[in-house]
Amino acid sequence: MIQLKNIEKCYQTRAGKNYVLRQINLEIEEGDFVTFMGPSAAGKTTLLNILGMLDGDWEGEYYLYDHAVHDLKPKERLALNKQYIGFVFQNFNLLDTLTVYENLDVPLSYRNIKGSERASIVCDTLDRFGIVGKKDLFPSQLSGGQQQLVGVARAVIANPKLLLADEPTGNLHSSQGEAIMDLFKKLNREGTTIIQVTHNDKYAAYSKRIIRLKDGWMEKE
Amino acid sequence: MATLWQDIRYGLRMLGRNPGFTAVAVVTLALGIGANTAIFTLIDALLLKPLPGVQDPQQLVLVTDNGWASLPYPLYEHLHNSSQSLLGLFASSGVSKRKMKVTGSEEVKAESVWNQPVSGNFFSVLGAPAVLGRMLTANDDRPGAPQPVAVISYDFWRRRFGQDPAVIGKIITLEDVPLTIVGVAPRGFLGFVVGSRPDLWWPIQMVPQVQGWEDALASEGSQWLQIVGRLKPGVAQTQARDELDVIFKRMRLEQADRQRLSDKKRQDFLSHRIELQSAGTGFTWLRRDFLRLLSILMGIVGLVLLVACTNLAGLLLARGTARQREFGVRAALGAGRWALVRQFVAESLLLAAVGGVLGLLLAQWGVRLLANYIPEYGASVLLQLTPDVRILAFTFLVSVGTGLLFGLLPAVRTTRADLATTLKNEAGALLGRASGQLWNKLLVVSQIALTCLLLIGAGLFVRTLQTLKAVDAGLARENLVLFRLDLGREYNASRRAQLHQELLRQLESLPGVRSATLASVLSMGSRGGYFMPNLMTDAVAAKTTRGLHCSGVGVAPNYLQTMGILLLAGRDFGPEDLPTSGAEGRRALRKVILSQSVARSLFGQDNPVGRQLWESGRSESTMEVIGVARDVQHQKLRDKPSTTLFYYVDMEDSDGTFYVRSRGSALSMAGGIRRTVREIAPDVEVTGLRTMEDVVDDQLRQERMLSQLASFFSLSALALACLGLYGILSYAVSRRTREIGIRMALGARRETVILGIMRQGMMLALIGCGLGIILAIGLTRIVSNLLYGVTPTDPLTFAFVSFVLIAVAALASYLPARRAARIDPMVALRYE
User: Which residue, of B683, B710, B726, is where some domain finishes?
Assistant: First the structure.
């Protein structure tokens, strides 16, 4: 599904180039559940952003299915992102001014789906994640766990093949974290490929593969 | 469509969540859009609105002689009888007030009505059928045998006659001439003169009877009519012009032959040609007077709106920082750049739409204030100021344009954020960068530059008004009141003379009156002296055949004293100077007083008192100089003082103006004057009673309009620009809270912090001010012919504006600087 060849990313500083990713070579199969681990500034989030096409300034080759992402223009990358990828953030990143229902509707609204169809998908998702009762609440009216539940629901609502999660449990207490990880496991079983970044060994254990990064280098699997 | 609706819904919610910002933005926009709409409404009413109640107005053309639209009646007759390319051609005079009485009515006192003499085909050419009775016809206006009839307006029928159908056949008297009402004009029909609402129309052939102007229809030199034609279908305007021009030329040729003009004068006389102007929007002299003024005001309010847009763009750019995370998340969820820009712009357009609606309401109120600056016939013009499709379209386009102008740049900048960084929640990633700050600084500098330009323009207009107010016209304006008498037709020449003399005597005996006089001119007003060509003296005649042209002003005794005009030599007129009638009177020398410049031109350094002069063409002296007065400005303050010759006024003249000099407040005389007139002649009405200061004020309406409006708008722009400067500095302070905290923890003094922040603000203000001055040097020459006594690059105005701008900018910079200096290092270091 994913093939990375010699991915490198650096920032130009006065002192010279400052590499944050070096020589990343990696293959991820469809249905995989991968965890990136490592100390701060190891390049985990940067690698996740590159995979999610939020960061387009890097070198190397990146293949998603048959698409050579490194050759694509920003607009084409956006189209690919919309087609295959869902994102879960550490700080939830729900839109404060929108209700739960509207937050779930946002990704669909960017995918040219008809209003009636969107309503039906949102209702299904609310039901699937057990948050029907919260649909008219604003994020500020939800607990952290509930917010992340909505975050995950929003990430998967457009039925992505790949779910990228950047420390999804980082702002949650343990029981909430476990609930989210159980949800990830379930999604993975249903066929969604998941790549997460975490510092927590217990949550990393939910994944099938753990890839460790240090100072921008991939250490070992 | 659903997406658009969603954008609008989210946009409304965002605006609702920031009520402070929304309110500031909406008020700013409402002021900017409202001012533009108000000025445009006036332009629309004066220039663009098609004539109401007129059929196919686009087919109408106004006939002009080299662009001049006042023409003599014989020309109308000639064109009317010979033209083939027009469906019809009518003539109409100006709309004026006359006294009307309804025969059989219990009302004893005559009422003033707006009326207009028109040719018999006026209504048929305009395509306005009667709603009751019939309109005027060619038969009513038959040369030499006109019918004494009138058509009244629908509004007058409703207002004065309660829509009584029996009005047809009623006899009214207009200036004591009986006219029978034969019809009522259609509802909404206002005739051809924009800004006027005639109550009744009557045949132009009745002018000699009604106006007592015997040769009005025969005089080839009296230019008093507008001539308007309707083009035949398929006939181009140029075709009609060529045809009318041939007729006109033939007529001029005949006239030139008859008048035996010199070659040069003949050439000049025959160089005139007919020009046609589209007349679908009617005619008004106000266009000549106010179009340039309104164009300049439109430019001013356009600049104010630009300042408002720049200001809001700055505010939105700053707000964009706070919303970067939102846009980052939206992008991560699949939003393309266009979708993000659309969302941002939708909010700007919503703000502009609300501002536009409020602006439209504000304009309806504002335009009525503006209309008060436009006088005509001593009353405010009745322009049609109700919003029409054009005004709504203008407001809509301005609102959309405004929304895009201030929304697009922040939208493009905000949505260009680095997604990965933004999602790490590093607020200020975009605008914290040097380029983001640069844009904000550029916006503030532009605001200050535009404001500086506006302030300089306003300063020049204010200085012009001040200079004109201070012009020494040669007469004392204070404690001077003037009025005219509205005499009926029953006052013949001898009764008029008797009344005038008696009134002057009575006025002088009124308590509080210093002196009173009568003159043939309306000083500082619209009526000047009459042209006296080729004044000669022995000395002048010895040198040349061409004498001195000057303006003749008839005055009663005590004129110089009453007007406060300095007598330089000789004496003022006294009762003994009254010209005697009969053969002896005709032989006697007419006593005259010369203005200083006339005396100097005719007599050089010699004392002219006792000397004689005559008008060219006479074989002997006809006038004797009894005095020399200081030069006086009789009409426009902007003009040079008139070269004037004062003679003893003809007391039989019906068109004189009375002047009363009081010891105290001039207006306190009003009651006494009216009472005195009522006692002497109960049937005579006092009109136009005003102080001389009011007359001068009236003359300066355009200048006052420009200076007051330009000042208001430029001060609004100054407030906006300073708000912008304050905003950017406040934002900079909030961004640098931690840095300032560290600096203070390391020992920086409060003064150092204040100076540091203020330096930033003052640098922007100085750059903006410099650019504004450069702009002003280039652009103020556009208004140079509206200025008086001040150059377009008046150093004093430039210096004063720069000082005010810098001082206000310093205050706007000081407030955030003071806040920065109050930062508690401990709190600041915990801030992040």
Answer: B683
